[in-house]
Design brief:
Blueprint lengths: L16 E5 L3 H7 L6 H5 L1 H14 L3 E8 L7 H18 L4 E6 L12 H5 L2 E3 L4 E9 L1 H9 L5 H6 L11 E4 L18 E4 L9 H11 L9
Parallel strand pairs: 1-2, 1-6, 2-5, 3-5, 6-7
Antiparallel strand pairs: 3-4
Helix pairs in contact: 3-4
């Protein structure tokens, strides 16, 4: 378990940018005979724990997968719960050292109104020591369609993505045992390393992050070269 800063292990290489897929909230709740929607609220505190752990370890940017356009097909009680959880995460980050950007389709009524100001431009809170991107009502096709219009070369394509302000991701970590990206930032993750944990997201602890970072520091990062 991560403790005080002086107890952190030394890594020979730390990813600049991590992607986070916090899966397993509904399964976590069902295993405890709770309504599935209650799992989303239980996933909020771990998000703040991961933020603080990442900041202390020197990670510069993190992208959190909030919910997708496909997720909004779930029962309304669940969509209301994960929308509320995303708002709680964003508002909690305003009280921390974060440079926050929310990326997602704001035209939909399922995009939380409270988050629209953070979708217009990145906002800095405290020292803004970590760039945090929160994907809310995000869709990979919605993202790519912005870049496809009128682009004739790769730089024009990536520069016009809806997620163009999000940098290339070094390491994607997914909780919940699933071995897939589920549409998570297909352009930024094209050269990412992927680490999968069987533990469900609400059971997050600092050891999970350390485990992923230990694995990452031994990977051969070539970016195709």
């Amino acid at each position: 378990m991560i403790g005080a800063v002086m107890d952190f292990p030394r890594f020979k290489r730390i990813p600049e940018h991590i992607g986070v897929i916090p899966d397993g909230n509904r399964r976590w709740a069902a295993a405890r005979d709770l309504p599935k929607e209650s799992g989303y609220a239980s996933g909020v505190p771990p998000g703040f724990d991961l933020f603080e752990h990442s900041r202390s370890l020197g990670i510069k940017e993190m992208t959190l997968y909030g919910f997708t356009q496909d997720n909004t097909k779930r029962p309304s009680v669940q969509t209301a719960a994960f929308r509320k959880a995303c708002v709680e995460i964003a508002m909690g980050l305003t009280e921390r050292d974060a440079a926050l950007l929310v990326v997602g389709n704001t035209d939909s009524p399922l995009f939380p109104e409270e988050l629209i100001p953070f979708a217009r431009q990145r906002q800095v809170f405290g020292k803004g020591s970590i760039r945090v991107n929160l994907l809310v009502n995000y869709g990979w096709l919605w993202d790519l369609s912005h870049g496809a219009s009128g682009a004739t070369k790769p730089s024009e394509f990536t520069g016009s993505l809806a997620s163009s302000d999000i940098s290339r991701i070094d390491l994607v970590i997914r909780w919940g045992g699933r071995r897939r990206l589920s549409g998570f930032l297909p352009v930024q993750s094209v050269y990412s390393d992927f680490y999968f944990l069987d533990e469900l997201w609400p059971d997050y602890c600092g050891d999970h992050l350390l485990e992923a970072l230990r694995w990452y520091e031994d990977q051969d990062v070539t970016l195709g070269g």
